[in-house]
Write a structure and sequence with these properties.
Strand order of the largest sheet of chain A: 3-2-1-4-5-6
CATH class of the largest domain in chain A: Alpha Beta
Largest interface: A-B, 60 and 59 residues
Largest sheet of chain A: 6 strands, parallel
Radius of gyration of chain A: 20 Å
Helix content of chain A: 40-55%
CATH topology of the largest domain in chain A: Rossmann fold
CATH superfamily of the largest domain in chain A: Nicotinate-nucleotide-dimethylbenzimidazole phosphoribosyltransferase (CobT), large domain
Shape of chain A: globular
Order of helices and strands of chain A: HHEHHEEHEHHHHEHEHHH
Oligomer: homodimer
Strand content of chain A: 5-15%
Number of strands of chain A: 6
CATH architecture of the largest domain in chain A: 3-Layer(aba) Sandwich
Chain lengths: 347, 347
């Protein structure tokens, strides 16, 4: 990693005593052993992240990072780049899916302009961190310079430092960004590109083939990526890089990281490649319909909470999964034990 | 069906015009077509059930039907029958999983004593509808008489009539009731018993084989079930029968039915066999880890919302899925359209 980069170190948790205590608590709740399935594993994980047998989530923050992609001009998306700034307006006006779902669950929403190709008028809820008016076309060379990438990572960390709470939900917007996510996945997990590339917002078969050809060229033009940082700079997007920095900062602060879909997972992939202990703090909200996501989750050894065939991004899946995290904490805090409720145990 | 039974007729919905309108609304929200996956299908279904393009769920009711099973004496469960009344006390005291989860989501909780083998002291939140102190041992003959079954169905319908709101979440408690559910499934779907019988609250391999042998005998002793009502009487439980009546009443009132796990689904299976239009009003909350549930859901052509490896019952899965139903309504009501938000459509 370049020496100028000043991101916190994420210390690996080694909370074996707490893990045993949490498992004991779960095993003595009034239910058959393990009968709440994945919710129990989630409760255990949240307890470990927050360092508590009675974890309580407070002031959850949905942060949506938005930026444009030079490669969008090559027709890799079903939508024009203008949709990026239009959706930023929609997020801020409260009309997008993530706006509606965050509101439903009392999750605060912050939109970060990481590099949208248009000036966005300042207003509450918008953080202006524009690195440039979109990345360069990755099919012709690096999407950004290493210096730009480092600036994005730092800015992402700053965003987290400015926000309260002990949980962050990571969303994104950027026409063309399934391309960046697929490129990062292919490079960092050594997976053939065609297994990483999907239809994004809804490409037809011809569009998918065009996207694949453009991205094959992008990989060929960006061969020299000796570190995750270099891969992120060459193949990423400003929203992905800034989200990655935010994830590292949030993890270093022992906040809970709620990862949304394919793009957010690609940022987590980079963050975990840079600092493996980030992984312990990640809850994967859902498995997207975007074709590479299942494989990416498998690489991250992640079992997502939801499988609803979502392919929207924005943080919508993270918002939908949020109540399950609250439920996991409530189970730990509020359920009776066999002893306290006077219920007989299994024979 | 016996003539003395007076359950409402559930009229099939044929709301094609509304379905088209709802699909149009969903397709013009600011997202790629279908990008919210199963949530969109859920929104469409809820809109159709409630007859509205802007559906709003109000005063949701969790109703937990509890009863005992004579066959429990044959060792078909990992827990003793006493756990049924003990858990009823736990529900009412607020310490059970379903109590905690219903409270989290502002869902009112009612516990119905449909036939618990112990007197339960009256108190708010408890409906005393005891048909008997548990069913007869189904491995020796019919679990209940047809008259008892009809009384249970009627009482279930009465419970719904006494409760407000437009959505009912169906939960249950009854040591031994995966046995009844498996028997009903086998008989009504013509599925070999071993594909219907699972480990319930946590039987080991020997326990599973014992349960299977007892239930094979139960099927052999209850061959003559010429109608779903007769099957329900011979093979069911008081909580399943009462839940079935409640489902029919709720469906007739065009309330939304949220079906929990294996036992609740078996009640829905009987209700749909009696009155097929019940099916339109059913949302299946989750796929349980109980081994027959996936097959039962497939028979009902149901795609559950959650797959979290739950096997607790009580209504816990229905409560966990509840926020997704609220989200589906919020998407329909509150998301902007491409036109209203000024967002460009796909090229």
């Amino acid at each position: 990693m370049a020496t100028s980069l000043n991101l916190p170190h994420v210390v690996p948790h080694d909370r074996q005593v707490l893990a045993q205590r949490l498992q004991h608590v779960l095993d003595h709740k009034t239910k058959p052993l393990g009968a709440l399935g994945q919710l129990e594993q989630l409760a255990l994980q949240i307890g470990l992240i927050l360092g508590s047998e009675q974890p309580r989530l407070h002031q959850p923050q949905m942060v949506v990072f938005a930026a444009d992609h030079g490669v969008a001009a090559k027709g890799v998306s079903a939508y024009p780049s203008d949709v990026t700034w239009q959706m930023v307006e929609n997020f801020l006006a409260g009309g997008a899916a993530v706006s509606v779902l965050a509101r439903q669950h009392g999750v605060a929403l912050t939109v970060v302009d990481a590099g949208v190709a248009k000036d966005i008028a300042p207003r509450p809820g918008l953080v202006a961190n524009k690195i440039a008016y979109g990345t360069e076309d990755v099919s012709q060379g690096p999407a950004m310079t290493v210096a730009q990438c480092e600036a994005a990572l730092q800015a992402g960390a700053e965003v987290i430092r400015s926000l309260p709470g002990n949980a962050v939900l990571f969303g994104e917007m950027g026409i063309g960004n399934t391309s960046s996510a697929a490129l990062l996945m292919s490079r960092l997990t050594d997976t053939p590109l065609h297994l990483c590339v999907g239809r994004g917002t809804g490409l037809d078969e011809a569009g998918l083939q065009r996207k694949l050809a453009v991205l094959e060229q992008a990989l060929a033009r960006n061969v020299d990526t000796p570190s995750p940082l270099h891969a992120l700079a060459a193949l990423g997007g400003f929203e992905i890089a800034m989200m990655c920095g935010a994830m590292i900062e949030a993890a270093a602060q022992d906040r809970l990281l709620v990862i949304d879909g394919f793009i957010s997972s690609s940022a987590a992939l980079v963050a975990c490649a840079m600092q493996p202990a980030v992984r312990q703090r990640c809850v994967f909200a859902h498995q997207s319909d975007e074709s590479g996501h299942a494989r990416m989750l498998a690489h991250l050894q992640a079992k997502p909470l939801l499988q609803l065939g979502l392919r929207l991004g924005e943080g919508s899946g993270a918002a939908l999964a949020w109540p399950l995290l609250e439920s996991a904490c409530a189970i730990l805090r509020d359920m009776a034990s066999f002893e306290s409720a006077g219920v007989s145990q299994a024979t």
